[in-house]
């Protein structure tokens, strides 16, 4: 371990991202690893229309609490173990299906307020396992209301329509892309980003998130 990392661990010891228990090294505590709401293997990938998204965990309980801390409680350190989970899931489900990795970006205003982009952090930590770096392919224009405050699926789709744009189509054309985000709820945000990437010429786009909201049974 590098000396700088040792100093950081001394003053900011690694914690389990889901229960905040202090750990000897970055990762997930044994209790959480055993008890987290893991999505069954046969349901890990959600497929509908133009969306294929792999997620290892259901968005509930400790997973929900951990992701809310990452997003709203200045806990960027949680992105490292969560990104490792995402990386393993994406490799198992989509290994060989993507050439580069990108993320769903925050707007400039929200980025300034939060201080970091949690999806970018997740993508960066996921990419460490593959010795590559994620590439910024999308930007978010405007400041629409947060999706978390909108529950109707149609309203969520309308809320993100036209919000995301490809930065440089030459970086996208002909590429197979893995798109990273923290949570897949209705899939509206991911689907809109996938649509923009495909319009810019991407050969294919698959998605990966840390967690997915379980769809309500009719």
**Spatial separation of the terminal alpha carbons:** 51 Å
Number of strands: 8
Low-confidence stretches are: 3-11
Helix-strand pattern? HHEEEHHEHHEHEHEHE
Number of helices in the DSSP assignment: 9
General shape: globular
Fraction of residues in helix: 25-40%
Give me some keywords for this one.
single chain, 218 residues, alpha/beta, 6-stranded mixed β-sheet, two-stranded antiparallel ribbon, 39% helix, globular, disordered N terminus
Give an account of the 3D structure:
The structure is a single chain. 39% of the residues lie in helices and 17% in strands. It is of the alpha/beta class and 218 residues long. The strands form two sheets. Strands 1, 2, 3, 4, 7 and 8 form a six-stranded mixed β-sheet that branches. Strands 5-6 form a two-stranded antiparallel ribbon. Helix 4 (79-94) packs across helix 6. The longest helix is centred in the middle third of the chain and has 16 residues, at 79-94. It starts with a helix and ends in a 6-residue tail after the last strand. 35% of the residues are buried. Residues 3-11 have low confidence and may be disordered.
